[in-house]
């Protein structure tokens, strides 16, 4: 069966931080349209694929994406016109080959991913099936457990907390709709606790609260209080996850927390995480160490990796080659999956498959700068990642992914 691409059309739209990002429409000869919008990070890893920005100070503080849009409307349009949209791997290969660099420096990963996602949507639409079914088949995949970020710090908030994300994970819930309700109830319990303490309830980039607090541990204690206040148990119902985003802390061979000013050696930071995971019900820690501290990652994994999920985000940047190195050296036991870190759906899927083949977990993830695009929800189901993080149970660019999963759960539930 052939359903060919007639036109690729890009445009500049806004993300949740009010900065421009790339949207792409793929139009097929039968009139079907597929659309993809790419997100954008703030605490980006150095090894991520290249995000093409105009650097024209006269527009959007240099953050315009008209060059990437131009790539879609000219080069990528020419490359993909006439290609069968059902051949996603071939499409991604054409884009990667035409770019010719290891990090999509020429076409821009934002242009390439927008096209890659839009093609998948167009294909699913043309076939009249859901995106998760197109990407994953009918193997009755599971809905992931959400890791909801309810307290923001680091580069995502102007508060004094250095750990970027504090997440609640409803490990005791047996349905996505239940997970949503539980997380929302804890989120609002945390809001009332913060209010009662006279603390700020304004939110950070991912929708979690962003109060000034004396220590990281205070954030953990407040969240545990919120879980209990909402009527849940902090062992069986919920566990906690954190994203340290510690690449942001690297400073001349040591770690210095930018806000609190605390200094750690690699070994000191490993001890810190070890103590924290002894003390609290911790499910996972993401980027506990820097993106080039392979030796530290290996030591930490040896010490707490059997009980704690250690997630490489900046370390692995959804890149199968870096994951390969980490697997052979025993660095962490999970990879965060962000399609725009690598630039095509095919490479994203290959990273998940490599992780699975080697006993690593995959966590599907949004970015701090998001849009109404819900592709990651479908990807999480299609690839059966089991876990997804899409921020707080609040703000449309976060809840659209969770709401999409509610609908998918309803669809799948009809056939169970
Ligand atoms: P980013 O944050 O999108 O700003 O990189 C998300 C994360 O670090 O997981
Ligand atoms: Zn991260």
Total discrete domains? 2
Span between termini? 30 Å
Oligomer: single chain
Structural class: alpha/beta
- Total beta strand runs: 15
Rg on CA atoms, Å? 21 Å
**What strand line-up does the widest sheet have?**
4-15-14-13-12-11-7-6-5
Contiguous runs where pLDDT drops below 50 for at least 5 residues? none
Do you know the CATH architecture of the largest domain? Alpha-Beta Barrel
Bound molecules: 2-phosphoglycolic acid, zinc ion
Identify the CATH class of the largest domain: Alpha Beta
Average of per-residue pLDDT values: 97
Q: Describe the sheet with the most strands.
A: 9 strands, mixed
Beta-strand percent range: 15-25%
User: What is the CATH third-level topology name of the largest domain?
Assistant: TIM Barrel
CATH superfamily of the largest domain: Enolase-like C-terminal domain
What is the share of helical residues? 25-40%
**C-alpha geometry:** globular
Instruction: Summarize the helix and strand pattern as letters.
Output: EEEHHHHEEEHHEEEEHEHEHEHHEHEH
User: Tally the helices: what do you get?
Assistant: 13
Explain how this protein is built.
The strands form 3 sheets. Strands 4-15-14-13-12-11-7-6-5 form a 9-stranded mixed β-sheet. A 3-stranded antiparallel β-sheet has the order 1-2-3. 40% of the residues lie in helices and 17% in strands. It has helices spanning 66-80, 88-99, 109-127, 131-136, 176-196, 216-229, 266-279, 294-304, 320-329, 339-342, 345-357, 375-382, 396-413, and strands spanning 5-14, 20-28, 33-37, 145-146, 148-152, 165-169, 239-243, 250-251, 254-256, 263-264, 282-286, 309-312, 334-337, 361-365, 387-389. It contains 13 helices and 15 strands. The chain has 2 domains: 5-128, Enolase-like, N-terminal domain (Enolase-like, domain 1); 145-412, TIM Barrel, CATH 3.20.20. Helix 1 (66-80) crosses helix 3 and helix 2 (88-99) runs antiparallel to helix 3. It is globular. With 416 residues, it is α/β, with parallel strands linked by helices. Strand 8 and strand 9 form a beta hairpin. 2-phosphoglycolic acid (PGA) binds at residues 41-44, 164, 243, 245, 313, 365, 367-368.
């Amino acid at each position: 069966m052939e359903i060919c691409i007639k036109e690729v059309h890009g445009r500049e739209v806004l993300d949740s931080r009010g900065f421009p990002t790339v949207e792409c429409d793929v139009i097929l000869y039968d009139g079907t349209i597929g659309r993809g919008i790419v997100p954008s990070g703030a605490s980006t890893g150095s090894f991520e694929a290249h995000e093409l920005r105009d650097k024209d100070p006269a527009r959007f503080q240099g953050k315009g994406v008209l060059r990437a849009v131009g790539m879609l409307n000219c080069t990528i349009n020419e490359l993909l016109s006439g290609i069968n949209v059902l051949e996603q791997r071939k499409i991604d290969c054409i884009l990667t080959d035409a770019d010719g660099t290891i990090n999509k420096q020429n076409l821009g990963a934002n242009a390439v991913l927008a096209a890659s996602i839009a093609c998948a949507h167009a294909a699913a639409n043309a076939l009249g099936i859901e995106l998760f079914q197109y990407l994953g088949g009918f193997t009755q995949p599971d809905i992931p457990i959400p890791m909801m970020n309810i307290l923001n710090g680091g580069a995502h908030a102007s508060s004094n907390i250095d750990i970027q994300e504090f997440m609640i994970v409803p490990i005791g819930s047996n349905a996505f709709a239940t997970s949503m309700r539980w997380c929302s109830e804890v989120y609002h319990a945390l809001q009332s606790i913060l209010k009662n303490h006279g603390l700020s309830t304004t939110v950070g980039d991912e929708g979690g609260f962003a109060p000034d607090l004396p220590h990281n541990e205070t954030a953990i204690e407040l969240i545990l209080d919120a879980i209990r206040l909402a009527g849940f148990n902090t062992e069986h119902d919920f566990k906690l996850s954190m994203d340290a985003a510690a690449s942001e802390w690297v400073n001349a061979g040591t770690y210095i927390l930018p806000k609190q000013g605390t200094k750690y050696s690699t070994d000191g930071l490993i001890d810190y995480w070890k103590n924290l995971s002894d003390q609290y019900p911790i499910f996972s820690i993401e980027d506990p160490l820097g993106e080039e501290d392979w030796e530290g990652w290996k030591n930490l994994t040896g010490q707490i990796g059997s009980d704690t999920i250690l997630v490489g985000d900046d370390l692995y940047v959804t890149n199968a080659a870096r994951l390969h190195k980490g697997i052979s050296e025993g660095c962490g036991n999970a990879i965060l999956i962000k399609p725009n870190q690598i630039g095509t759906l095919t490479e994203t899927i290959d990273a998940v498959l490599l992780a699975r083949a080697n006993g690593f977990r995959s966590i599907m993830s949004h970015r701090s700068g998001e849009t109404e695009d819900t592709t990651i929800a479908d990807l999480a189901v299609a690839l059966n990642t089991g876990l997804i993080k899409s921020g707080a149970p609040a703000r449309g660019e976060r809840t659209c992914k969770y709401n999409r999963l509610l609908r998918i759960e309803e669809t799948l539930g009809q056939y169970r």
